[in-house]
Specification:
The chain has 7 helices and 11 strands. The chain is α/β, with parallel strands linked by helices. The two termini are 17 Å apart.
Length: 265
């Protein structure tokens, strides 16, 4: 099928809970991550994207990875892929012998964690000229998990980070699996990738009963499609509204256009 103008496709992933068999000794449930994904799905449709979502048990490693790679096979120069993730951020060791310091951040999907370097490998499957935007409302670092404040439940802020003992025990229980999927070489990314993340690597992302703080701010700035600025302007306005965490805009691969309209195919 031919497209006369750049094509926009999106995938929105949200998990309030996950498979207790995989995450040891327990997975702390969230309350609004799936609401984030549905709100981002609605926003993407409004903006003209061909949108899909994966929630809870449907948000498996196979489904998320398979969907992204399917888009890699079909998107071409100028097309835009938007991926949003709302859920726990976790960690596993960057190297088998290094379990205490260097960590690889993860998305906690239903049946297992997806490593940051696995995501990089997927972005490397896209051809030059494709634009990728990743919106991640999760904790991106395991370095501060031991110091997390207690979860306050649906009436107060709750961190979206895998608890330290759960992260360590989960890796120990499934070490052979995680080592078997470790990418063997650094990928070469030729697409342009923007990452809009909820907090710095040493911070936590929080949610309340309605949305993650970052997603709520993004939706407020978006204002039902009335926002028409650049990504830099979008992130500046989001950052001004979020308390207790510092969102970040970073890029990798090909340098994206600085004046590119935010979240538009």
């Amino acid at each position: 099928m031919a497209f006369d103008r750049p094509r926009g496709v999106s995938l929105h992933v949200g998990l309030n809970s996950a498979d207790s068999f995989h995450y040891r000794p327990w997975f702390t449930d969230l309350v609004s991550a799936e609401a984030d994904a549905l709100a981002m799905y609605a926003m993407a449709r409004e903006a003209g994207f061909e949108a899909r979502y994966l929630l809870g048990p449907g948000a498996t490693r196979e489904h998320v990875g398979g969907r992204v790679l399917a888009h890699a096979a079909e998107l071409g120069r100028g097309d835009l892929l938007l991926v949003s993730f709302s859920g726990h951020g976790g960690w596993i060791p960057s190297a088998p012998a290094d379990e205490g310091s260097r960590m690889n951040s993860t998305w906690c999907l239903y049946d297992g964690q997806m490593r940051h370097d696995e995501l990089l490998e997927m972005w490397g499957a896209f051809v030059e000229g494709v634009r990728i935007v990743v919106v991640s409302d999760s904790c991106h670092s395991g370095s501060v998990i031991e110091g997390l404040p207690p979860a306050l439940g649906p009436r107060g802020p709750q961190p979206r980070a895998l608890l330290h003992n759960t992260a360590r025990s989960t890796y120990a229980a499934h070490r052979e699996f995680y080592e078997s999927i470790r990418p063997r070489r650094a990928p070469r990314v030729v697409a342009s990738v923007r990452q809009l993340v909820a907090c710095l690597e040493h911070e936590n992302a929080y949610e309340d009963a309605t949305h993650g703080y970052f997603t709520a701010a993004l939706l407020h700035v978006w204002a039902n499609g009335t926002f028409s600025g650049t990504y830099e302007e979008l992130m500046n306005r989001i950052t001004a509204q979020v308390i207790g965490q510092r969102p970040r805009h970073q890029t990798l691969g090909a340098e994206p256009a600085s004046n590119e309209p935010a979240l538009r195919p």
